[in-house]
Design brief:
Layout: E1 2-10, E2 15-21, E3 24-31, E4 50-59, E5 64-69, E6 79-80, E7 94-96, E8 98-100, E9 103-105, H1 108-123, E10 128-134
Parallel strand pairs: 1-10
Antiparallel strand pairs: 1-2, 2-3, 3-7, 4-5, 4-10, 5-6, 8-9
Length: about 140
């Protein structure tokens, strides 16, 4: 399975996007600001656009299973999880059902559904990837 994260709204302190599965809307994302390659400000920079393997794994920090994004340059412990604004992200993509301006909400159910979908692929022996794409810069 390939998950697409389409970044489409860029602000000075955050980035809004849409998560697609099988080319269908799945939820909205909120990340830190997208910066030029090789520029990282701790807790204020989104991961680089690219193609990454994902899996379900236990988060030591959050003490629950979450989607982990593997082998992200300059980052460790990147996970897709819930949250409402850029203060909740620290580089991780936040996933929610609804978006308004620079906030997302209704996160729990959509995150659990994503975990269930990725786990189902893993149980079949399949690998899941996320393709993060920067679309044109607007807001």
């Amino acid at each position: 399975m390939i998950i697409h994260l389409m970044r489409n709204k860029y602000y000075t302190d955050c980035t809004i996007g849409e998560l697609l599965i099988n080319d269908k809307h799945f939820g909205y994302t909120l990340e830190d600001a997208v910066r030029a390659d090789k520029i990282k400000i701790k807790g204020e920079t989104a991961i680089s656009a690219g193609f990454y393997r994902v899996s379900v794994s236990m988060s030591a920090r959050f003490k629950k299973e979450m989607i982990e994004i593997h082998n992200v340059p300059m980052f460790k412990g990147i996970r897709i999880h819930g949250g409402n604004n850029n203060e909740d992200t620290e580089g991780c993509p936040l996933l929610g059902k609804n978006v308004s301006g620079t906030k997302i909400w209704d996160c729990s159910q959509v995150n659990q559904l994503l975990i269930d979908l990725v786990r189902k692929e893993e149980e079949k022996g399949e690998v899941t990837y996320i393709h993060i794409i920067n679309l044109s810069k607007t807001h």
